[in-house]
Design a protein that fits this description.
Largest sheet: 8 strands, antiparallel
Length: 264
Amino acid sequence: MKKQIVSILLGITVITSMSVSGVFADTTDNGKNIENAEQLKAAIACAMEDGALSEQEESQIMDRATDEAVSDLMQEKLDAAVETLNEIDTDQKMQRLADGSEYANWTYDLGDGCLMTVELTDREEGVGACVTAPLTATSTGEWKDYGNRYFTAKTTVTVAGYSVMLGLENHYVLSSNGIDENYGKGIYDKKGTACLIFPGKEYIEDSAARTPGASDVNMYCTFTCRAGSNESKYKLDTTVQYLAHDISGKRIKVGHTWKLTKLA
């Protein structure tokens, strides 16, 4: 009888050991068992069954995700951001702020708990940080006094608390001559993700606008996003439109357009 009991106990021990081994066989040496974008989306979907994704849930998911999984999903959602921007009206109105700047901020759902945020700003050079409380919504175009200004367009994609931002500052000059490009500055930022970002050179395509209502100045910058063996290239264009000119008042009415596209 004792031999039978011992045999049964040994059998249970072996089965238990095999079960535990099976669990850890699906986990990498560093405890990360989410190894690709599809698994990461599945984990996010599971956490969002209650309709929301908390910071704690984000942290727990990312602790289990490999760099490759996060980077793959980030590039997938960067592509989704481009597609979304092609479907919406990007010539949206900014709001006039107390300091004379214009500002806009919109957020779009990219699915799988991922978001895209668009931020636009036009302001005078040398002015401090924007006070984002709006005064009024602007109509198409806004009058600006002569001087140096810059228009900034930023697109940020967020994946479970990790993010990548691509942006371009378009620095321009308003004068009695019209509008002249000054210089451009490609800007980027990232949080948490292993995706590497390499901004290219800023290119000015139209450097001067001289005909009110029929001309503009514009520039673009390219960004290479690299994650492991995957590499994607994006292009961000910004334009400042020459809408009207009040010579006696020394001011020009300007408009803004921008576009994010994928090159490869």
